[in-house]
Amino acid sequence: MSEMEEGWKRVLGAFEDWIEYEASEFGPWTAYFSLDNLRDLTEEERLGWMHKMYDEVIPGRIDKCREAGVALEDFLPFMPDNEAIETVRSMIDLSIVLQDSMMHLSDIVAQMMEEYREGGLDEIVPLLESLASAEEDIRHHMSLFSKGFGKLRAMGLEIPEEI
């Protein structure tokens, strides 16, 4: 396998791991971004959800995003020209923007835990709205990776078939 193919394998593997994490680990927890769904939980379950999001789920998501960014950094030396280098750099920058946005999501959950302890479910309604808005922004930015891969493909940097 050539170095370019090995680079593709690493990049695609990191993105596949991230997509799998989004679907299996992060996605199920987003059901509670809704006040109606949170009302169905006990107080202990609500706090458990918040702690799980803050302590495990969001940090795991950030790690997967970071791993994709590192794979792109490692792929950068195999780019054949400045246009390809700039495209991969923009994808690396995008991963950094996403990591920052995910940290913001974590900050919202931390504030939510505090507000919930002090005032209950009604106090966190604005934070749930912030959480949903932040997640919408994250999803938008995540979708931009496909443009980067499309641009690389248009430059002739096709993903090898055997990967």
Overview of this protein structure:
- This protein is mainly alpha-helical.
- It contains 5 helices and no strands.
- The longest helix has 38 residues, at 82-119.
- The radius of gyration is 19 Å and the shape is elongated.
- 21% of the residues are buried.
Explain briefly what this protein structure is.
The protein has 163 residues and is an all-alpha fold. It is built from five helices and no strands. Helices cover 80% and strands 0% of the residues.
Structural topology:
Elements: H1 3-26, H2 35-39, H3 43-75, H4 82-119, H5 125-154
Q: Mean pLDDT, as a whole number?
A: 94
* Principal-axes shape call: elongated
Alpha-beta content class: mainly alpha
The Cα radius of gyration reads 19 Å
The arrangement of helices and strands along the chain is HHHHH
**Biggest sheet, open or closed, and with what strands and sense?**
none
Query: How many separate structural domains?
Result: 1
How far the N terminus sits from the C terminus, by CA atoms, comes to 10 Å
Helix content: over 70%
Beta strand count? 0
Tell me the fraction of residues in β-strands, as a range. Answer: under 5%
> How many separate helices?
5
Which residues sit in consecutive blocks of at least 5 with pLDDT less than 50? none
